[in-house]
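Quick one, tokens below. Sequence please?
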């Protein structure tokens, strides 16, 4: 199924329903479909042909959505670019993807002009907001274009999106996603529009990230109203939820924690929220427990996936977030809250050894997945593709294990796992313990090279406001709750942890800054 059908279907069923609320503007589904048709014609007039790439670089806005669906109609390939990219990163991604057209916000035009002459594929530049010399203006080309219907030929396995991973080392890789990468998930997990049921989904995660794209696809196919936030800001988020009566939200753990910690939290009515989906980074147990307590009536879903899987592959459902029952039942649920749930029905997930063999129950290995919606490979990178896709399975690079009830627990990234004296230490396991310490606000675990042990465990922690951290006490706190070899052997207190825009701790930077030997 070509993903452009998502919008076609919804605009026929609920044409007058608001599709997008952004920056004080409201766009119905029929208007959105019309704008997409006109943009597709405008892009074709600018020289876009089947298989061409169309790139965007801008904060969240309705133009992202319109450009993607216009690209799908043209059988072109959509390339969302991280708007935080440096000039060298941008030059690399543009030359790697070779777009015919680049659409960008006015704040990025100066940087783009410095490198545009080095990107030979570019035929046209379009400024999304305002004007720029030598650039087409988005609204002008949409207004002046015909609204002739364009019927795409691409379907299912054909490439529809090239999404660069937010790599922590080197330049990012372009992940090739097909129409089926999205449609197989959406058709299996999202209900089509209901004329009697209206839902509003606040969109905060960036649209260059798979979580943002997945949220858009689900909202459009489901006939939901998207409330778009340019970039996450806690007070604006709470205000939008309150004013627009948002029912759904997708958040990363850092965002949720910022909401709960904010002094304005009690001043906003967030009772309209029915579902909060979280993911993209590990969720500390203490944060999700607070969220459950502080947002009564809201159901929570933990969705796990990555760019290469195109969408969620495992899920911890709402019922596993309801902390009710006997002491024993609540203890089981608290344990499950640290998991990523169970595999979805339309994808097969296994945990395998270094040799690719399925490991025993409870044994740690690499999480691998198989299904029609996984990536087609990495753009122009055959070796990287061959390493990630083996025998029809995607090797995710994430380590974990199955428990006896079929729940998957993460142990960390393969490259982050610590090998101490022949024993394997899961950073996530130690971090969960540190997050439960009453004086610690945030924590990360890294391995420090050691001649005797190979690696030793170091904790990098941030103190809660008004608290003082005693390193010896923290080490003892962990020793009493973990096997001795897993406890941190040194503790470094910092003001904040380095994170990427979606809240993932940048372990590479921590290793670079705190890689000195542990004495004693």
């Amino acid at each position: 199924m070509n993903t452009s059908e998502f919008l076609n279907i919804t605009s026929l069923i609920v044409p007058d329903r608001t599709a997008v609320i952004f920056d004080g503007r409201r766009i119905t589904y029929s208007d959105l479909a019309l704008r997409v048709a006109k943009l597709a014609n405008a892009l074709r007039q600018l020289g876009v042909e089947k298989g061409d790439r169309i790139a965007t670089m801008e904060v969240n806005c309705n133009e992202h959505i319109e450009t993607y669906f216009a690209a799908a109609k043209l059988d072109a390939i959509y390339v969302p670019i991280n708007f935080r990219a440096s000039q060298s990163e941008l030059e690399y991604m543009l030359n790697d993807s070779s777009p015919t057209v680049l659409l960008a916000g006015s704040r990025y035009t100066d940087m783009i002009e410095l490198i545009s002459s080095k990107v030979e594929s570019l035929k046209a530049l379009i400024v999304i907001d305002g004007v720029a010399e030598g650039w087409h203006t988005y609204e002008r080309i949409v207004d002046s274009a015909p609204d002739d219907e364009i019927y795409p030929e691409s379907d299912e396995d054909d490439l529809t999106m090239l999404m660069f991973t937010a790599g922590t080392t080197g330049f990012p890789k372009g992940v090739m996603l097909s129409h089926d990468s999205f449609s197989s998930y959406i058709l299996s997990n999202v209900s089509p529009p209901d004329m009697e049921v209206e839902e509003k989904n606040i969109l905060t995660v960036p649209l260059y990230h798979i979580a943002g794209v997945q949220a858009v696809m689900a909202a459009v196919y489901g006939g939901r109203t998207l409330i778009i936030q340019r970039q996450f800001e806690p007070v604006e988020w709470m205000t939008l939820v309150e004013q627009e009566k948002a029912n759904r939200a997708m958040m990363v753990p850092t965002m949720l924690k910022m909401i709960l910690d904010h002094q304005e939290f009690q001043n906003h009515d967030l009772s309209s929220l029915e579902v909060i989906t979280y993911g993209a980074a590990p969720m500390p147990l203490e944060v999700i427990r607070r969220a459950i307590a502080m947002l009564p009536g809201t159901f929570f879903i933990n969705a796990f996936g990555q760019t290469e899987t195109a969408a969620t592959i495992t899920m911890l459902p709402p019922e596993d977030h309801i902390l009710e029952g006997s002491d024993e039942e609540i203890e089981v649920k608290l344990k499950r809250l640290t998991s990523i749930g169970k595999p979805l029905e339309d994808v097969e997930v296994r945990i395998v050894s270094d040799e690719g063999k399925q490991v025993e129950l409870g044994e740690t290995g690499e999480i691998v997945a198989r299904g029609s919606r996984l990536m087609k490979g990495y753009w122009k990178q055959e070796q990287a593709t061959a390493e990630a896709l083996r025998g029809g399975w995607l090797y995710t690079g994430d380590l974990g294990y199955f428990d006896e009830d079929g729940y998957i627990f993460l142990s960390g990234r393969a490259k982050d796992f610590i090998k101490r004296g022949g024993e394997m230490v899961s950073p996530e396991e130690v971090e969960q313990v540190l997050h439960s310490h009453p004086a610690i606000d945030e924590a990360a675990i890294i391995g420090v090279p050691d001649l005797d042990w190979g690696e030793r465990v170091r904790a990098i922690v941030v103190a809660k406001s008004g608290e003082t951290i005693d390193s010896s006490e923290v080490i003892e706190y962990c020793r009493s709750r973990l096997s001795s070899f897993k406890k941190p052997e040194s503790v470094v207190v910092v003001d904040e942890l380095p994170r990427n825009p979606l809240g993932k701790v940048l372990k590479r930077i921590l290793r670079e800054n705190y890689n000195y030997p542990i004495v004693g």
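Residues 417-513 form a domain with the GMP Synthetase; Chain A, domain 3 fold (CATH 3.30.300.30). The chain has a mean pLDDT of 93.
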